[in-house]
Structures are given as structure tokens and as C-alpha cells.
Amino acid sequence: MLITEKIGNINFFNINNRKIDYVILEWHETNIRILHKKTIAGLDVVMEFVKENPALSEGDIIYEDDFKVIAIELKDCNTIVLRPKSMLEMGRICNEIGESHQQAFYQSDEILIPFEDSLFRSFSAAGYNISLEKRKLVTPLLKSRD
After folding, report:
1. Residue 40 lies in a domain
2. Helix 87-100 and helix 117-125: axis angle, to 10°?
3. Between the chain's N and C termini, which has fewer beta carbons within 10 Å?
4. Domain holding 87: CATH number?
5. Who's near 81: CB < 8 A, 6+ residues apart?
């Protein structure tokens, strides 16, 4: 099955009584233009987003017919979770993340970063409120446009 665009998001879509099947993606696959995957039910799916970056997210619907809907589900991954105590600490954390060239995510007043041992040790040594958890990386902090 060839998919070339997103249709909507499951949170704002009328599913009715259709079955929902999911394509499981890792956080770093959400911006890849061409992907070959299988749904949980075993259906082969080829996603080709040629015109633009797909920017796929949790719950995005990529296919529908009278009987089923296929949506995106993000896989949990090892995540560094930082809880800044102040705006100053937030600025310092964001600066360190920028220097490490890591993708950062934001959720419920927390900064989330895909786990990297050296970064985890660095943030721990700096005394930040930090933990290692399994999380879905859903809301990226995007780079500003030039």
C-alpha cells in the first residue's frame, strides 16, 4: 500500500466503527520521507512523502477506507527527562543541548532528550533534576527559521 500524505489525526477524526491499525515508528523516523513498514496487523505500507517533510506524530492518520484506519504510533525509548527549576536553568539546559546537537522535546514542563550516556552523566554532574525513563518523544522543540 502506497501512502503519500497524512489525512488527519485520530484525536480530531471520525473513526466510527472502523478498526484502527497502527504503524509503529521510532522518534527519529518521523521526518523520513520514504519508509517501508508493516502495520501491527501485518499490512505492508510504503510511505513516500516526496513534496514535503512528513513530520509524523502520534495519532496521525495515513490511510482510511470503509473498514479500517491506519494511524501512527510512536515507540517508547530511553529518554533523559530534565525538570528545570527556573528559567535560568532552562536556558542553561537548552544551551547544553544545543551544543551537543541533540534533538530536544518538550512535554508538561519537562525537557526530553533521547538517551545518550555522556549527556546523562554531564547533566547529572551539573546537579539538574534529571531521570532516565521510557517515554514517547512526541513534541519536538523545533529549530528557528533563518
Report:
1. yes
2. 150
3. C
4. 3.30.70.790
5. 110, 111, 112, 130, 131, 132, 133, 135
pLDDT tens-place values along the chain, 146 residues long: 999 999 999 999 888 899 999 999 999 999 899 999 999 999 999 999 888 788 899 999 999 999 999 999 999 999 999 999 999 999 999 899 988 888 999 998 899 999 999 999 999 999 999 999 999 999 888 754 44
- CATH code for the domain of 65: 2.60.260.20
CA distances in angstroms from 134 to 24, 32, 41, 113, 114, listed in the order given: 16, 23, 24, 11, 10
Confirm whether 146 is domain-assigned. Answer: no
